[in-house]
């Protein structure tokens, strides 16, 4: 018996519900040396800024209990090199291509969206709003409903294909922010980004990361992510993409049951490069074993 | 280049000294594609503690038997778990990874400067060089450690018949002194050599400075903790001098970053901006 794994996010088609998360897959070239990217439902690229960024100095990562902290600092190749080298590479694969964009001003998001709108190989944008808003004192765009919505409006003005707003968990009311980005035109929401955290070296009595603070990811954050996905999926009318600590098929199925229509695999790609492929197979096996014919049947059915 | 990822069986676990272990794995595909200076990422636990795999330089390859070996010092929780692996246990390995050393042709005098855990890749480089026609007598191999029990001195190293110079900081084995002391002494009398170094960062930094002062070519292999080991996370990046033709960037840093796992672990002398 074959099962249907394909899903649709407001017109955006994925052959299966498993994507790789932004910042955990670079632009796909390295992972393509380990497995065939065409197996994936989709790829979300590393966040692009308009100009290239080197990012924070080392140390940029720190291992924690069942997780890790990162302060990479949005290092990326910039839009020009992405369009000339990275996008043509990804376009060779039969997988949905989602480009993540980031900026320090609303205008930067708009300029990125405008350039990417010209590229037929870009199926959708994921808008990383967990960036310091330079115009408004460095507070993250994603921290409050209004600036989060403004970014989405600016992107939607330039990009007519689906736009996914990626939400930060470091807020008091994630549902309020979710409603704001949907009202501003986002076709989908992905959540969660990393949780702010830090670690201190007691020998040197200094922070382990050069940037002081970083983002916590990995299996440790899964329960937090799952709760937020459940809340947001029940509050908005657009499809939700769940991520945060997903490492096994069982983790992914929990997110689908909680209401996510698709999932992203992030940190697991670091320590288990074949995790996305095993998760796809594992979801299929689960559906067969439980007599479901279509992955869409299990989305949001948790009691 | 294709990288292999899977669970590979342990074929031997040899205790070299108190805290130094040699593990051999059956890994046909990795043994066939390895060049000296490359490494593998080993996920020591299928649970999440530790979360990251650990990088190990490939010490030896046997393409006939389809085996690869590593030698490591038990230094913490992860290496402790690894030391307990027995014949028949399987373990997740990704590799071969990294750029590796340029393989020398038979024209060169080579000096290997190995500090403690830095010995394995330099052993493999020497072995490959000899197989490529470099006379073993033209390879000077310095192997040093803080003390005798921390020396990586497997029998295969002696069997290569290089000009082997052993030193320890406390004089408990070989000459008393550091690898850098030994290298300085050797460089006083010889020239026309290329230096290949692997060891603690303090040692590499001193060797880099020495090579730049004396205008001697060399290659340094760096060690960093790596969340992924294959280039997707950028967590292991080190600072290098930005190229003069780097265009405008968003964050105007005075450095460029290179990933130790892809653009390294081997860097040319003078390339790395040391902290």
Can you put this structure into words, describing what you see?
The complex is a heterodimer of chains A (303) and B (275). Chain A is α/β, with parallel strands linked by helices. Chain A has a single domain (7-298), classed as TIM Barrel (Alpha-Beta Barrel), CATH 3.20.20. Helices cover 30% and strands 19% of the residues of chain A. Chain A contains 8 helices and 16 strands. Chain A has helices at 78-91, 106-117, 145-158, 174-183, 222-233, 249-258, 268-271, 275-289, and strands at 7-9, 12-14, 18-20, 42-44, 61-64, 67-70, 96-101, 124-128, 163-166, 188-191, 195-197, 200-201, 206-207, 214-217, 240-242, 260-265. In chain A, the strands form 4 sheets. In chain A, strands 3-4-7-8-9-10-15-16 form an 8-stranded parallel β-barrel, surrounded by 6 helices. Chain A has a 4-stranded antiparallel β-sheet with strand order 5-6-14-11, with no helix packed on it. Chain A has a two-stranded antiparallel sheet with strand order 1-2. In chain A, helix 4 links the parallel strand 9 (163-166) and strand 10. The two termini of chain A are 27 Å apart. With 275 residues, chain B is α/β, with parallel strands linked by helices. Chain B folds into 2 domains: 4-97, Elongation Factor Tu (Ef-tu), domain 3 (Beta Barrel); 109-223, 3-Layer(aba) Sandwich (Rossmann fold). Chain B is built from 6 helices and 16 strands. In chain B, the strands form 3 sheets. Chain B has a 7-stranded antiparallel β-sheet. In chain B, strands 11-10-9-8-12-13-16 form a 7-stranded mixed β-sheet, with helices on both faces. In chain B, strands 14-15 form a two-stranded antiparallel ribbon. Chain B is globular and about 50 Å long. Chain B starts with a strand and ends in a 7-residue tail after the last strand. The model of chain B has no long low-confidence stretch (mean pLDDT 94). Chain A binds chain B through residues 23-26, 29-31, 33-35, 49-55, 57-58, 60-61, 63-68, 70, 72-73, 75, 78, 104, 218-220, 247, 267, 269-274, and chain B through 1-3, 5, 43, 48-53, 92, 94, 225, 227-228, 230-239, 242, 247-251, 253, 255-257, 262.
């Amino acid at each position: 018996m074959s099962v249907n794994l394909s899903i649709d996010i407001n017109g955006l088609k994925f052959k299966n519900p498993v994507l790789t998360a932004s910042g955990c897959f670079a632009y796909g070239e390295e992972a393509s040396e380990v497995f065939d990217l065409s197996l994936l439902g989709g790829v979300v690229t590393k966040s692009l800024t308009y100009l290239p960024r080197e990012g924070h100095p080392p140390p940029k990562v720190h291992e924690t209990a069942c997780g890790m902290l990162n302060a990479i600092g949005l290092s990326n190749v910039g839009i020009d090199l992405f369009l000339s080298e990275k996008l043509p590479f990804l376009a060779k694969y039969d997988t949905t291509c989602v480009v993540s964009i980031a900026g320090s001003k609303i205008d930067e998001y708009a300029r990125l969206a405008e350039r990417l709108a010209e590229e037929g190989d870009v199926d959708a944008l994921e808008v990383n709003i967990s960036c310091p808003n330079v115009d408004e004192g460095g507070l993250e765009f994603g921290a409050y409903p209004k600036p989060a919505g403004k970014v989405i409006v600016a992107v939607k003005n330039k990009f007519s294909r689906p736009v996914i707003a990626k939400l930060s968990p470091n807020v008091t009311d994630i549902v309020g922010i979710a409603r704001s980005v949907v009202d501003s035109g986002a076709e989908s929401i992905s959540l969660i980004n990393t949780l702010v955290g830090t670690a201190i070296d007691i020998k040197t009595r200094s922070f382990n990361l050069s940037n002081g603070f970083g983002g916590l990811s990995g299996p440790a954050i899964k329960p937090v992510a799952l709760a937020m996905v459940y809340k947001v999926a029940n509050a908005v009318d657009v499809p939700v993409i769940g991520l945060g600590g997903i490492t096994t098929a069982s983790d992914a199925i929990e997110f689908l049951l909680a209401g996510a229509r698709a999932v992203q695999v992030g940190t697991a790609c670091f320590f288990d490069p074949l995790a996305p492929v095993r998760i796809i197979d594992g979801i299929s096996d689960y559906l067969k074993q439980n007599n479901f014919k279509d992955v869409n049947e299990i989305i949001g059915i948790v009691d | 280049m294709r990288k292999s990822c899977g669970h590979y069986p342990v074929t031997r676990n040899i205790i070299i000294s108190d805290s130094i272990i040699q593990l051999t794995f059956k890994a046909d595909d990795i043994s066939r594609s390895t060049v000296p200076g490359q490494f593998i990422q080993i996920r020591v636990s299928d649970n999440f503690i530790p979360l990251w795999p650990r990088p190990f330089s490939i010490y030896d390859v046997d393409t006939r038997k389809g085996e690869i070996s590593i030698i490591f010092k038990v230094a913490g929780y992860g290496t402790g778990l690894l030391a307990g692996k027995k014949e028949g246990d399987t373990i997740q390995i990704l590799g071969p990874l990294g750029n590796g050393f340029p393989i020398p042709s038979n024209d060169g005098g080579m000096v290997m400067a190995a500090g403690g855990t830095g010995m394995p890749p330099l052993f493999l480089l020497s072995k490959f060089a000899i197989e490529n026609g470099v006379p073993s007598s033209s390879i000077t191999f310095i192997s040093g450690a803080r003390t005798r029990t921390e020396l990586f001195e497997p029998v295969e190293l002696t069997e290569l018949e290089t000009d082997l110079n052993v030193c320890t900081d406390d004089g408990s084995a070989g000459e008393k002194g550091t690898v850098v002391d030994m290298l300085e002494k050797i460089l006083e009398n010889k020239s026309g050599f290329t230096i290949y170094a692997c060891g603690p960062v303090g040692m590499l930094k001193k060797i880099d400075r020495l090579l730049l002062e004396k205008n001697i070519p060399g290659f340094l292999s760096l060690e960093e903790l790596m969340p992924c080991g294959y280039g997707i996370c950028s967590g292991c990046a080190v600072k290098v001098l930005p190229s003069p033709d780097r265009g405008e960037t968003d964050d105007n840093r005075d450095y460029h970053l290179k990933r130790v796992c892809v653009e390294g672990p081997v860097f040319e002398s003078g390339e790395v901006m040391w902290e």
